[in-house]
Amino acid sequence: MNRRTFLSVSAAAAAAGSAACNRNHKRTIAVIPKGSAHLFWQSVHAGAVKCARENNAEIAWSGPATEVDYTAQLQIIDAMINRRV
Prior knowledge:
2 strands, two-stranded parallel sheet, mainly alpha, single chain
């Protein structure tokens, strides 16, 4: 999946999820990047934050420092599942 498709799908999912929700509190959306040090993932974070602001949602952003830390990636995913985001 290329970067443009990924960003489009992520933004659409965030918008649809928060628009479909008729609750009074903000919806929290987990965004788990493959890594957090690379400039690409920093731009994904900025896009997620912008989309969250536009759609009255919160972003739970968490990612490992490097893209090859697979154990940390799985731990973060499990933590987000346990938070029910």
